[in-house]
């Protein structure tokens, strides 16, 4: 695996579209890699791609009171994981070179100000700015993102579509610990006691899916409200619980019939750690 650190090295090492024998697959990460990131690289390799993984803690997607400074940086471990997973290139860009000239230009979307975006102002603008820059600089045929960050996946898919980037965005299923906790680099913030308790979040999502059989919008609101209450009783501090449409990512409305497919999104704090998760609601009967 080749390690790249500058834009000049990136341009020199990556094949242009005309010279590619296999699709070029992009796996963007912020490092502190785990089995969830491994699954993205392995899926890209299985799909026949040559993988370039980026490792960049993007300052543009952190708010002033967030964890940019303490976000885990594990470069050597990340290199070993990417190499063993089959990546061909690992790009560790310098922040000054990649974002030093950023003057406030932003890319946004109405959904970017909802859910996680409502609690992390500017977060998705920072994500979309860097992802669009990677799309431009790397010019991949495919890009892989985990479904744990479902709102992010939706926005990046819309970015590629509406701005006509010649890239196919592919979502990869959430990888979970044996006890159900969605893998995340921030899970290492959990205390041992919190780590034992954290899988309760996914368990509650599954229970909510089992009880999802609304006859009206009021039933959906009631189920979401009951889930918020249960989360509070179990020591979580919920930020939001919402059923959204997969196609628009807008909340289900009174006009949506009971059989409308949905995604149940949640974000909640456990101690000093913010957890996000989601689960597909296929229909009122599934």
UniProtKB/TrEMBL annotation:
An annotated GO cellular component: cytosol
Binding locations of ATP: 30-37, 146-149, 175, 183-186
Residues that, per the record, bind (R)-pantoate: 61, 152
A GO biological process held by the record: pantothenate biosynthetic process
Keywords noted in UniProt: ATP-binding, Cytoplasm, Ligase, Nucleotide-binding, Pantothenate biosynthesis
Reactions catalysed: (R)-pantoate + beta-alanine + ATP = (R)-pantothenate + AMP + diphosphate + H(+)
Subcellular locations according to the entry: Cytoplasm
Recorded GO MF terms: ATP binding; pantoate-beta-alanine ligase activity
InterPro entries in the record: Pantoate_ligase, Pantoate_ligase_C, Rossmann-like_a/b/a_fold
Presence of keyword Transferase: no
Active site: 37
UniProt xrefs under SUPFAM superfamilies: Nucleotidylyl transferase (SSF52374)
Domain of life of the organism encoding this protein: Bacteria
Pfam families for this protein: Pantoate_ligase
Family of this protein: Belongs to the pantothenate synthetase family.
Reported function: Catalyzes the condensation of pantoate with beta-alanine in an ATP-dependent reaction via a pantoyl-adenylate intermediate.
Comment field (misc): The reaction proceeds by a bi uni uni bi ping pong mechanism.
Subunit structure and binding partners: Homodimer.
PANTHER family on file: CYTIDYLATE KINASE/PANTOATE-BETA-ALANINE LIGASE (PTHR21299), PANTOATE--BETA-ALANINE LIGASE (PTHR21299:SF1)
HAMAP family (alphabetical): PanC
Annotated protein name in UniProt: Pantothenate synthetase
Phylogenetic placement of the source organism: Bacteria, Pseudomonadati, Nitrospirota, Nitrospiria, Nitrospirales
């Amino acid at each position: 695996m080749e390690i790249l650190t500058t834009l000049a090295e990136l341009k020199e090492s990556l094949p242009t579209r005309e010279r590619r024998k296999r699709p070029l697959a992009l796996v963007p990460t912020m490092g502190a890699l785990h089995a969830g990131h491994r699954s993205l690289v392995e899926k890209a390799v299985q799909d026949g791609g040559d993988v370039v993984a980026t490792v960049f803690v993007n300052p543009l997607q952190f708010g002033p009171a967030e964890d940019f400074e303490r976000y885990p940086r594990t470069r050597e471990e990340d290199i070993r994981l990417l190499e063993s997973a089959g990546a061909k290139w690992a790009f560790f860009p310098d922040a000054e070179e990649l974002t030093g000239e950023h003057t406030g230009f932003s890319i946004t979307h109405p959904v970017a100000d909802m859910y996680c975006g409502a609690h992390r102002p500017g977060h998705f603008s920072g994500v979309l700015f860097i992802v669009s820059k990677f799309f431009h600089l790397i010019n991949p045929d495919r890009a892989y993102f985990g479904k744990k960050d479902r709102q992010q996946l939706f926005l990046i898919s819309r970015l590629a579509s509406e701005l006509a980037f010649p890239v196919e965005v592919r979502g990869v299923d959430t990888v979970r610990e044996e006890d159900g906790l969605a893998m995340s680099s921030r899970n290492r913030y959990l205390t041992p006691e919190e780590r034992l308790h954290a899988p309760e979040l996914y368990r509650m999502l599954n229970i909510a899916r089992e009880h999802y059989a609304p006859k009206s919008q009021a039933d959906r609101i009631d189920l979401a409200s009951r889930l918020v209450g249960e989360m509070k009783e179990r020591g979580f501090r919920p930020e939001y619980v919402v059923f959204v449409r997969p196609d628009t990512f807008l909340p289900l409305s009174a006009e949506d019939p009971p059989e409308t497919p949905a995604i149940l999104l949640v974000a909640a704090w456990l101690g000093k750690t913010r957890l996000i998760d989601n689960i597909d609601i296929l229909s009122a009967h599934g």
